[in-house]
Design a protein that fits this description.
The chain has 345 residues and is mainly β. It folds into three domains: 97 residues; 107 residues, no CATH class; 100 residues, no CATH class. The chain is 5% helix and 37% strand. The protein has four helices and 25 strands. The strands form eight sheets. Strands 10-11-18-13-14 form a five-stranded antiparallel β-sheet. A four-stranded antiparallel β-sheet has the order 1-9-3-4. A hairpin with a 7-residue loop joins strand 3 and strand 4. The longest helix has 4 residues. It is globular and about 45 Å long.
Length: 345
């Protein structure tokens, strides 16, 4: 039986739905904690994803579907609050009468990090939930950077925030340490090259970067979102597609709240589903981290008490004999240290 020290997953991750009002100072509450990383997207009209974090600072936006550098948005996210965040009048964060979704993660520790050949300029980490935000300056040469998690991260999202036209680099344990994915495109995994991660998986204290500009452009301020697997709270893995509507079942050890999938073998979009936008099985309201497209109900997954079941033959979730990688976060653990079991939907 799976046990976890995180009995309340929403202390560290939560999805928040809200409706924009088109006005400055719109306070969004009900997240349950002060977020350090907020990823938001309009649901019903085409608009870029907007990613903000406490390390780079409020108003500093990145876009998961774009290779553009960081930009300061005076009308974007303007504050992180004790129970959520505040947005101004930008359409991507607060268009009047439009439905929005925001995925929120908590980090929180901002001192005590050391080690590595590159010293981060700022950071926030949470070893309990396995999440850290690390900002550092690239050197263009093989290097190591501390991540603060106390166990090896299995997925890291990298973005050069200084230079324009620099793609997101994605390390995922299941694709191999000489390969990468690209968050802002639908490309299959690419490699083989030691220039990405120095042909070395992260350790319990450090991640490794080569000379490739996606993670280590010389002189570039770079952000890394690091995720370690925490039993009962997060799962980072791989499954084999079957091209059947009665698709594979993936065991996570918890009832999912968030699942993001990428077919690593072919050119198809990333798929992102959560437990709030549809709110019932099958979870089908997909958004696509690599595009500005509206959500669509064509991607079917059942969330169960201990994992998720693919209910579609579409290649983006279930390509025949193809490998698909994923990251998932919990709504509730199957069984926590309080011995209260999660229930199926």
């Amino acid at each position: 039986m799976a046990y976890t020290t995180i009995n309340k997953s929403t202390d560290y991750f939560n999805t928040k739905l809200y409706t924009g009002n088109g006005s400055a100072g719109h306070s969004i509450t009900g997240v349950g904690f002060q977020p350090d990383f907020v990823w938001m997207k309009p649901r019903a009209f085409s608009e870029n994803h907007a990613l903000y974090d406490s390390v780079r600072g409020v108003r500093e936006r990145l876009m998961s579907n774009s290779d553009e550098k960081q930009e300061t948005r005076s009308n974007g996210l303007s504050a992180f609050g004790a129970d959520g965040f505040t947005v101004n009048a930008d359409n991507g964060e607060n268009k009047n009468s439009e439905t929005m979704v925001a995925w929120n993660w908590k980090a929180g520790t901002t001192s005590g990090l050391s080690g590595g050949t590159i010293t981060p300029s700022s950071y926030s980490f949470n070893a309990t939930s396995g999440f850290s935000i690390i900002k550092y300056t690239g050197t263009g040469a093989t290097a190591t950077v501390p991540h603060g998690l106390g166990k090896a991260p299995k997925m890291i999202l990298f973005k050069d925030t200084t230079n324009t036209s620099t793609y997101w680099g994605v390390y995922h344990k299941e694709i191999g340490n000489e390969y990468r994915l690209t968050l802002n495109t639908d490309a299959a995994r690419q490699g083989t090259s030691a220039n990405y991660w120095s042909s070395t998986d992260p350790s319990s204290s450090l991640f490794y970067i080569g000379s490739n500009s996606r993670a280590n452009a010389s002189g570039a301020a770079t952000i890394a979102y690091c995720f370690a697997e925490i039993p009962g709270f997060s799962k980072i893995g791989k499954y084999k597609g079957s091209n059947s509507a009665d698709g594979p079942f993936i065991t996570t050890g918890f009832k999912p709240a968030f699942v993001m999938v990428k077919n690593m073998d072919t050119t198809l979009s990333w798929i992102l589903l959560d437990n709030k936008r549809a709110g019932y099985n099958p979870q089908k309201m997909a958004l696509f981290p690599d595009t500005a497209a509206v959500e669509t109900g064509d991607y079917l997954i059942d969330f169960t008490s201990n994992g998720f079941k693919i209910r579609t033959a579409t290649g983006a979730l279930n390509g025949n004999a193809q490998d698909l990688v994923y990251i998932a976060f919990a709504e509730a653990p199957l069984v926590g240290t309080n011995n209260i079991p999660a229930t199926a939907r």
